[in-house]
Amino acid sequence: MEAITSRWTRMIKLVLPVMAAGLSSIPVMAAERYSPDDLLSMNIEDLVNVKVTTLSKREETYMSTAGAVFVITNDDIRRSGVRSIPDALRLAPGLQVSQTNSNQFQIGIRGQTDFWTDLLLVMVDGRPVYNTTFSGVWWVAQNYPLEEIERIEVVRGPGGAIWGSNAVNGVINIITKNAGATQGLRVTAGTGTEETGFGNIRYGASIGKLDYRLYAMRETRDGGLSLNGITDAYDFRRMKQQGFRLDWQADATTNISLHGDAYQIHSGQLGYWMPNPTPLNFINLSNSDNGYSGKNLVLRMEKELTSNIAFKGQLFYDQYKVHTRIIREKKESFDGDFQLDFSDVLNQNISIGTNLRGIRSHFDSTPQFQMPSRSTSLASFFVNDELSLFDGKFRIIGGVKMEKNSYTKWESQPSIRAIASDDNWAIWASASKSVRTPNDLENGLVWNRKASGCWTSPVTRVACLVRQIGDGRAQTEKVKTYEIGARVRPTSKSLIEVTAFKTIYKGVLDTWQDRNLANPLIPQAIVPEYLTNVLNGKGDGIEANFRIEASEGLTFKGSYTYLHQNYVDYPVADGETIWTVRSNREQDPKSRFHAGVSWNPIKEIEFDANLYFNGPFRDNNVTGHHRLDVRVAYKPVEELEISFVGQDLMNLKHRENEDNSMQYSSLVQQRWYAQATYSYD
Amino acid sequence: MLSYMMMRLVSWPAPQVAGLILKSKTLRHFFCGCLMLLLLTFFAAGPAYAAERVRAGVSDLTAVYIFNFIRFTDWPENSLAKDAAPDKDSVLINVLHNQKIHDTLKRIIAKPAAQKLGLALQSCNQTSCIQNSSVLFIGESDRGHFSQLLKLVEGSPVLTISDVPGFAEQGGMVEIKYHNEKLTFVVNLQAVNRAGLYISAQLLQLGEIVGRDNE
């Protein structure tokens, strides 16, 4: 007790001069000392770490995660100057983000990245936004006011043992701010060369223990350039979205939140159209309009039942409509997710959970694209056990998820992880089995398509029709992943992480053209293309990233990703699948890096530069690409921020990706915009 | 320490990773290059040690702690004062022997975030006043006499908090203590339970616990 007392006195002696200095030279010291308001705005988890600033609770959790995780913070997003969620993801190591045209993005992790990327689970506040139609994400429809996003958590590698199927190569969770953290009025508006007009408004307030916010956003993005480099391409995007979030601390142990959004998006597309898809018919290449709309409502509850049992429950309803010239779908999902966490049971933390989802999809068939309307379901259970040894310095985490959808039998996805960690370092390793389950397209699709290289020449038109067929022959793709990683904090203000991985894919799902004369479609001059398991493959590589706060107001950050992939055309081996092998291998760059600097020359001015590189990939028209974004911001008063951003400053125009089966590509232009944000509490 | 860390990082994963996972020569090349890059960043990181850290004033942080303890505590039904507004529970905080914390708390409870908790503040030495409060903070200058104050509120739903060393060990509920350049806290769970209070596990897991029921 003596020792404690003397330490206490010593501390006061130490702190008093600091406080006095703070008063005498406010401009310099102000940033060095937290005000009561700063402290009040922090979570209790953060408060216990104030003063030493070694680790906040979140950093502590981060350091002790036995997996390849990365967090893109609100500040990272704001300072990078990006204008969309897909662009913000370029800030994370291991993410392959590319843009076909002004409104279509492809996002993948650790390979197989194209429009149909099917190995990622993407969520907004715990609500999955990847769809069971093609196991992918309509990125054009995923928007939120960037100012209201608290952080984006990216898990590279399998998350199947907790999240379920399709979390094969990664999980992206977009987490919006708690309503309590977004009180008052904020208005953001801007204009630029490509982002011709954008703005959003938020108002937050509270009634008793209930905090809420309302927001509305609107954005207009101009089209890119046609491949001739002269005329405008028809790939504009216009979006509107509105939403709300309520957070209610019902009592000391219960938190309830309710949030919902609604969006309406229009975009242009250049594509081909077959009004009457028979082998002898001509194909029409023309512009058309796409519409995407949707709404969702999510109710979440977290309650501590006892001091070491916590309950989390979530119910959501999600509806979206896609209306293109070819595809017309309406999908509704009803989902319930329940989880119990038992902490400190014989040195273990145990979680069990279940998820049930009902899905109703309705298709209006078009001459080109036919799918049955139907109801499907998904059910899963998981258990996860974390064993803690040596005072938490060494932990083993084992888990398994059992899952069944309408097309599969029960699939199990186990994983085991081990980590040794302290506040300043961690080394971890993991082995997981995960699955990519068959989707709706693979069970019912009939899609009449133009064969590649086929135009309206009367000579070749006979071979112009390919009929893509999902007849249910697709089986679950099984994936094994091994990972090893290390992270270290050489100082309290720097972090370095390295991860190496190897992924083995069995039964990669893709397309296979059956050219066998015995197939009944061949005599009709239609090439049948089946959705099925056509490849086995391997991918390995490393991901490394660092962040250093060199001084007050100067931060360096960056990442490097190397990916090596190899596929073989097995189980189906013929002259057709070898092309699938090639496209799979070539659609991801071997090397990628990001290097960024954030600098505040004075308190009122922010300067940021971010350089991104995508290594050479594809044998065709797309090569490697450097992208430089620069942002300068000025804050004349606390309430107002004015910023100027230049994007893609190293090229006037470039082609970032090839055409794909959904849309044709266009050239992405250099872009400039100015933005102002006014906030008032 | 820096170089020691680096040795771990370099010497541990590299051979294993290279052997187990990375078969191609180019890949190994990249991996080594990357480690070199890391080594460089390590040296670059040196000056960050000298960077001044952001600090908080002790009474500011203590006051914010008290506010947070209230947020994470449930009082038994009907035990909270109903003087100001009869339809609304009110948490009455009594701060003794620390003017600074009293003043900071006064500013805090005027804020909207605190208003919804229905906080009221006083600094009152009278027995009835002390027994009537929901939270009792005892400043360090009263270290010799705190056990008398604790006796006054024994068995009643009054959350007792202090920065007197040894407060939790000696029957107080929450002790705020300085440790390793930060403020942590110790909770005497027996004392809390005896008073019929409930402190959320979210808070408990961040502090040190004495007097668990099974001990």
TrEMBL record, chain A:
It is a multi-pass membrane protein. Keywords: Cell outer membrane, Membrane, Receptor, Signal, Transmembrane, Transmembrane beta strand, Transport. The keyword Iron does not apply. Pfam families: Plug (PF07715). Residues 63-171 form the TonB-dependent receptor plug domain. The keyword Transmembrane applies. Belongs to the TonB-dependent receptor family. This is Outer membrane receptor for ferrienterochelin and colicins.
UniProtKB/TrEMBL annotation, chain B:
InterPro entries: YfiR/HmsC-like (IPR025293). It holds the Pfam family DUF4154. It comes from the Bacteria. This is DUF4154 domain-containing protein. It comes from Mariprofundus micogutta. The lineage of its organism: Bacteria, Pseudomonadati, Pseudomonadota, Candidatius Mariprofundia, Mariprofundales.
